[in-house]
Amino acid sequence: MGTEPVAAIDAERAAGAYANAFKPLDPRIESTGFRAHVLRDSALGPAADARLGEDFLLNTRYIREDRETETSIEAYFTGAAVAMLAELDGDEPAGLAEFELPDGVRLRFELGHALARRGSGRIYTGDPIEIAYLATIIRSGASITREAQVESSAGARTLRFRTAPSGGGLYPVDLYVGALNVSGLARGVYRYQPRRDSLLQVGGEDTIERLVGCFSVREEVITLQRAATVALLVARPWRSMRKYGPRGLRYVLLEAGAIAQNIHLATQALGFASVDCASVVDDEVHETLGLDGLYQTLVHAIILGYAG
After folding, report:
1. For 31, phi and psi rounded to 5 degrees?
2. Are the C-beta atoms of 271 and 109 separated by less than 8 Å?
3. pLDDT digits (tens, 9 = 90+) for 11-66
4. What would the pLDDT profile of 231-259 be if each residue is shown by its tens digit?
5. Which of 22, 67, 126, 160 is the most buried if burial means most Cβ atoms within 10 Å?
C-alpha cells in the first residue's frame, strides 16, 4: 500500500463501489455530442439512445412455451436433420491448396498446472513456431475427437464431435490460421478442415500482410510483427440461429470462447504465449478474406508466438 494515506485509499474504494452500484438519471448526457462508453454506461438519459448490448441480452432471452422455438428444435430430430449433421463440413477443397497436418506434439501438462499458469502473453521473440507444435494447438482448438453411429430412417449415420462443445452439435465456428512465421508452412492464411484434419489455403503472402494491417494495436502493447500465428474464429451464425432463433447467437459466442480457451491452454502447456485481441477492424478482415460479414463473420482473434 506504500505511503498513500488511508483516507485517500478509502475514497478510491468508495468511488469504485459507487460507479458499479448506481446509474443516475442525467438529462445533460443528451447535450453531449461526444460520449465515451463510460459516460453512456454510467448515466441514464431520457432519450431513446441506442443501447445495442442490452438489446442483445433482451432479444436472446429464452421464453417459456415459445412454440416457434420448440418446433424449430424438434425439426432437428428428423432423419433429414441427422443426415445434415453427419455431413457437416464435408466439403471438398474446391481448388484450394491443401496442407495435411503432420503429427503433433503430445500434451503432457497437467490440466491444473496449465490453468494455474494461464495468462496473456503480449511480447514475442520473433522466432518461428514449428509446424508440429502448431498442429497440436489447432487440434486442441477444433479437431474431431470421437465419432458415434446414429440410426435414422435412411440407415446409420456418423456424427462427429470436437474438442469444444457446440450447441446442438452444429459447429458454426471455423478456425482460420494466419501463418506469420511457422517452420514448415508457407506464409499465408489457412482454414482448418476438421473432417480432413488439414489446412486449406485461402490466401498467400499478400493476404497475410493485409490481415496484419487489419489489427489496430500498437507494437509496444502487442508485438504482432514478432508473433508466429494469428488465429481467427469465423462464425456462420445462421447454422445455430435457424434452430435456436436469436438465442443461437449466444451459443455461437460460447463456442468461440471454448475454442479460444482450448487454444490458450494448449499454447501454455507447450511453453508459448498467447493473447486475445479485440483491436481488429472486422470489416477489413472480412474484405481481406472474402467474407460477407453477416453470414460469415469474424467473432474473435488470438495472437500467439514464442514468449519474449
Report:
1. -90, 0
2. no
3. 777 666 656 666 666 666 666 667 666 666 666 555 556 678 889 999 999 999 99
4. 999 999 999 999 999 999 999 999 999 99
5. 160
| Same domain for 78 and 44 | no
Both 43 and 87 in a single domain?
A: no
User: Are 23 and 148 contained in the same domain?
Assistant: no
Judge whether 276 and 302 are in contact, CB under 8 Å. yes
Residue 43 CA to residue 24 CA, distance in Å, equals 5
The pTM for the full model equals: 0.87
Same domain, 26 and 142: no
Query: Which residue stretches of the chain are H helix?
Result: 6-21, 37-42, 52-59, 67-74, 79-86, 111-117, 131-142, 205-213, 238-244, 248-269, 282-289
CB distance 180 to 162 below 8 Å:
no
Cβ 233 vs Cβ 182: under 8 Å = no
Residues 104 and 191 placed together within one structural domain of the fold: yes
Q: The cell 502493447 sits on which residue?
A: 221
Distance between CA atoms of residues 175 and 139, nearest Å? 10
Question: With contact defined as beta carbons under 8 Å apart, do 129 and 272 qualify?
Answer: yes
Beta bridge partners of 203: 189
Tell me the sheet residues that pair with 230: 178, 303
The cell for 171 is 459447429
Q: Determine the Cα–Cα distance for residues 264 and 282; give it in Å rounded to an integer.
A: 22
> Which amino acid, residue 175?
L
Helix or strand (DSSP H, E) at 229: strand 229-235
Q: Do 158 and 254 lie in a common domain?
A: yes
**Which residue range forms the structural domain that includes residue 84?**
67-305
